[in-house]
Design a protein that fits this description.
Layout lengths: L5 H5 L3 H12 L20 H20 L3 H21 L4 H13 L3 H14 L4 H12 L8 H25 L2 H6 L20 H13 L12 H19 L4 H14 L4 H13 L3 H14 L7 H18 L2 H17 L4 H18 L2 H17 L4 H22 L1
Helix pairs in contact: 2-10, 2-11, 3-4, 4-5, 5-6, 5-7, 6-7, 7-8, 7-11, 8-11, 11-12, 12-13, 13-14, 13-15, 14-15, 15-16, 15-17, 16-17, 17-18, 17-19, 18-19
Length: 408
């Protein structure tokens, strides 16, 4: 799974999942027309919402930096601390469990993650993030245990069934009841507030989703973003599973395209698809997948992972063809990456490898010396990184050999 950075691989989508809670809660509460039997209701306290929001902010700060290794563990520990506290405040809310499971999965704590995903499903068997999380857990274990393929497939089937169940229930809710949810959640104020201004349970549900999901309410209609995003996540997991099984790049690309049908701008599927095109040496296609994402969503211009992925594309392109333009673009992408996160070790290693390869082919001492600096930077931030150490040895040997030739 190397190369799949955590942010998009894990798909820690707070807003979409928070909005999904609203969908699961629709049909409960006051309103005209016939009532249908509701899903369990998950009232969320103000304190729980605040802790959750704090965890969300810390999470996105870490993902924007593309933290890895110990930096990722440290940052996710702070996220997990807030989510554990939120879970204590609101122990019946599946969102808290599935989000905590995703954080544990980020840090390689698979057993803890699996337990949290299963707990989320104890509260609601159609909790899609729980099934997707279990699938992710199983997929990551396929290289060591091929039998996990069947387990992952089962979880993805259940996730798809859960989406269908939610869609069916939503379609059964009378139109007037659907509309009543669009305006809920204005900080406990309005006609739904309880006595003395204390929000009722129904109001608390609306409150937390207004707080976390902002303007997602109009998207809860069948043509909106919440359920299609869930289906995009499911197909992305199928693509990840195919990649873990060693399926051809063309197969993985086709599965990513199925994810795009439901959400054409879902970043994890776009990144995975671009990586497959690099495997096929289709660099132009890979570039044209990520550049439009940055242009469409300015927030990604300050995202270290996107710059890292672009640097990988241009590096492979440069090394394959020794094309000056692509070598320049690769260096520019690495500069942007390290401006955002100076301690990005994989970025320093990629930059060192690029300069070592180009310097060796062109017999250019200055480029090799640049590679040496970049390898030293990687070792400064992670002295025990095995790849950085081996690469530094190769660079030193190439510099010594070239210096000897010039002396002669």
């Amino acid at each position: 799974m190397a190369g799949h950075s955590c942010l998009y691989r894990r798909s820690f989508s707070f807003r979409a999942f928070a909005a999904l809670l609203v969908v699961l809660s629709l049909g409960w509460g006051s309103g005209c027309g016939p009532k249908i039997k509701p899903y369990p209701v998950f009232p969320v306290s103000r304190n729980g919402a605040t802790l959750y929001k704090t965890g969300q902010d810390l999470y996105w700060q870490s993902r924007a930096r593309d933290d890895r290794g110990q930096a990722l563990i440290d940052s996710m520990d702070a996220v997990a601390k807030n989510l554990r506290a939120a879970k204590t405040n609101d122990p019946n809310c599946p969102l808290m469990y599935s989000k905590l499971g995703e954080v544990y999965l980020e840090c390689g704590q698979g057993d803890l993650a699996k337990n949290e995903f299963e707990r989320s499903l104890d509260y609601c068997e159609d909790w899609v993030p729980g099934w997707i999380g279990l699938a992710q857990w199983a997929i990551e274990r396929i290289p060591l245990d091929p039998l996990k393929i069947d387990e992952a497939t089962h979880y993805l089937i259940r996730a798809d069934q859960a989406v269908a169940n939610i869609q069916k229930r939503y379609n059964e809710i009378p139109e007037d009841q659907r509309k009543s949810w669009k305006g809920l959640g204005t900080l406990g104020l309005g006609e739904d507030a309880g006595a003395e201004g204390i929000p009722s349970d129904r109001m608390r549900v609306g409150l937390v989703f207004d707080f976390l999901a902002a303007n997602e309410y109009p998207a809860l209609h069948t043509g909106g973003t919440v359920l299609p995003r869930m289906r995009a996540k499911i197909w992305y997991q199928h693509a990840l599973m195919a990649d873990a099984r060693g399926e051809p790049a063309a197969t993985v690309i086709q599965l990513c395209l199925k994810s795009h049908r439901f959400d054409p701008n879902y970043p994890p599927a776009l990144i995975l698809r671009s990586q497959q095109h690099v495997k096929l040496k289709e660099y132009f296609e890979a570039e044209n997948i990520l550049l439009p994402l940055m242009q469409a969503e300015p927030i990604y211009q300050n995202n270290a992972q996107i710059w890292y992925e672009l640097a990988q594309i241009y590096s492979a392109w440069c090394i394959s063809q020794l094309a000056e333009d692509q070598c320049f673009e690769a260096e520019k992408a690495y500069v942007q990456l390290h401006d955002l996160n100076e301690q990005h070790v994989e970025g320093w290693i990629g930059r060192a490898r690029l300069n070592y390869t180009v310097g060796s082919k062109r017999r250019n001492l200055q480029v090799l010396q640049n590679a040496q600096v970049f390898a030293n930077n990687a070792l400064e931030f992670n002295p025990n990184h095995p790849e950085a150490g081996k690469l530094r040895e190769l660079i030193d040997e190439a510099i010594s050999e070239l210096t000897t030739e010039e002396d002669q």
